[in-house]
Design goal:
CATH topology of the largest domain: Fructose-1,6-Bisphosphatase, Chain A, domain 1
Shape: globular
Number of domains: 2
Mean pLDDT: 96
Helix content: 25-40%
Strand order of the largest sheet: 3-4-5-6-7-8-9
Distance between the termini: 44 Å
Order of helices and strands: HEEHEEHEEEEEEHEHEHEEH
Radius of gyration: 18 Å
Low-confidence stretches: none
CATH class of the largest domain: Alpha Beta
Length: 272
Amino acid sequence: MQDSPENLRQLASRLEQLAREAGAIAMADFRPGEHTSAAVRLKGGGSPVTDADLAVDRFLQQGAGAIAPEAGWLSEETADSPERLERERVFVVDPIDGTTAFMRGDPRWSISLALVEKGRPIVGVVHAPALERTFLAVSGGGAFLNDEAIAVSPRGDLQGAAFVAPTEYQDFLGDSAYELRFVKRTPSLALRIVQIAMGEADVAIAKPNARDWDIAAADVIISEAGGALVELDGDALAYNRPNSRRDMLVAAPKALLGESIALAKAAARRGK
């Protein structure tokens, strides 16, 4: 299946609008600085889910199905089905990435919507309605924040670089010869990755066990902005696999990727 560049742009525009409409649904239950008005319950693994997560999930599934009915579906809030593995295209979705932030009135959450084709995302939308930020990328078409083109940091080496990293890695990373600076971690992993895509920070490291729905949309955004999102083998990530769990992740400009992976590997070894 191959869309023309124009058709792909039109598809991306429709998916962006869908994400914006989904954001309005979530915002109805978001209370800045206060606890959400949505009902909250615990999922099987003990993580919280709100009625807003579920409402956004239903809305996105219905809307995405109308836009690309041939595509499969993988979402944090929908029971997975192996049927998606037979599809050339699949939507990979996190209805609210950063549910805990959403619950407590912290605006740093997002709606993450990606369309994957043959294992790689071709359209990605990361919409943060409470921050009034919408990131969009189309494979081969660049990356944008609120319709303005974005790019990763032009930094040529890690000396003095700004890192987004888990707390347990920061002592080790801070003791390195690079004199790194640390940027406060946002609760949404998708937003952490697009921070790198827009050059707001230089490198992000994420602990193992992220899931494909956390990262697929942000992956194409950082790729189109001149960076990469990889595991420690350095290869481009493949999606629509039976297992959606991820190893340690590194997001960085391509010029910094090798050094960043080496530093992440050392931090992972020290953390064991």
